[in-house]
Amino acid sequence: MTSNTRICVAGATGLVGSAVLRLALARGHHVHGTLRDATDTARTAPLMALPGAAGRLTLFSADAGEEGAFDAAMHGCDAAAIACFPPLYKAADGTPARALDRRRGYEEIVRPVRDGVLNVLGSARRAGVGSIALCSSTSSTNPPVPLAVKHEATALSDAEAQMADGKFTAAEKIVMETAALDFCVHNDMRLAVLLPTMMLGPVVLPEHMRSHGLALLSGLLEGRRAMHEQVPAGSMSVSHLEDVAALFLATIENPQARGRYFAVFDSLPWAEIYDILARHVPAAGLPAPLDGAPEPPTRFDFTRRDSLGVTMRDIPATIAATVDWLKTRPFPG
Ligand SMILES: NC(=O)c1ccc[n+]([C@@H]2O[C@H](COP(=O)([O-])OP(=O)(O)OC[C@H]3O[C@@H](n4cnc5c(N)ncnc54)[C@H](OP(=O)(O)O)[C@@H]3O)[C@@H](O)[C@H]2O)c1
Known about the structure:
- The protein is an alpha/beta fold.
- 38% of the residues lie in helices and 14% in strands.
- NADP nicotinamide-adenine-dinucleotide phosphate is lined by residues 11-17, 35-36, 43, 62-65, 83-87, 135-137, 196-199, 211-212.
């Protein structure tokens, strides 16, 4: 891809979308960014302040719930990064997703995402955009019988089983991926799907400080128990936000890239994550020690991820870089 490449970033004000947009601009690409209300200057100003934005970033209003809403944003683009489907935790009337029955859970949590991704892809098809990078999540990688080692080809959640369990917010992701894959196969579009979990690193908008990784770290730096009263027995997968953005661009820039890719560095037991955090934050905020042994962390086969040629930062380096960045007080006030 040349620096004349034009990329549509759907969800440009999002944690992931803004990181992809920032890196695309840094690499000299032109970007069409979307959010639902591009007249909201409080949210667009940080994007327009990014290096390269003045000459190469155009913002568009587009709601995934409306067919054709992304037509203008996709027009003239070579590729699209789609990161505009954050998990839905509540129905429109505020009922928690977990409390919904099967019919409402599907109609109000799962279906809007399925229909939404088809709307965005429909606009991409009409504009002749042939390359798509779609942001999903590792919540689509949990088959009913857990795998000893997760590989993208076999680590597929079962949407029906998740919905039968009331896990509509998780089921959204595999349903979205399946709908997107069918659409892209039928329309001869190249689809790569990125699968992140917790992301740390410098964020673009102040609102991203509420994402669970940044909220955890900034709370701990202030000496607050930000997420856990006690160290959990389980594990967490972590990646640096800029590495996730690099994986997105790698799939766009590599014409051979298609299919699913883990976008995590690795998974560690929370006990080890808190040991690393303890090197950087006051002890006051740290949770009580784990009672017993940690559970084995999720194990991944990273062959496909590594085929993209992106060097991922390890978890201690990611945490150290994020702490250093937070100490600069990037969003004073
Ligand atoms: N954040 C995490 O820790 C995390 C972890 C794992 C996976 N992921 C995945 O990453 C992807 C992106 O999540 P995120 O955390 O970056 O989300 P986010 O920060 O909440 O941002 C979502 C973006 O999508 C836009 N958007 C929301 N609803 C929309 C709609 N109906 N139509 C059009 N645009 C809409 C938002 O724009 P406006 O609100 O300005 O319209 C915003 O730009 C999701 O697939 C998510 O599952 C995130």
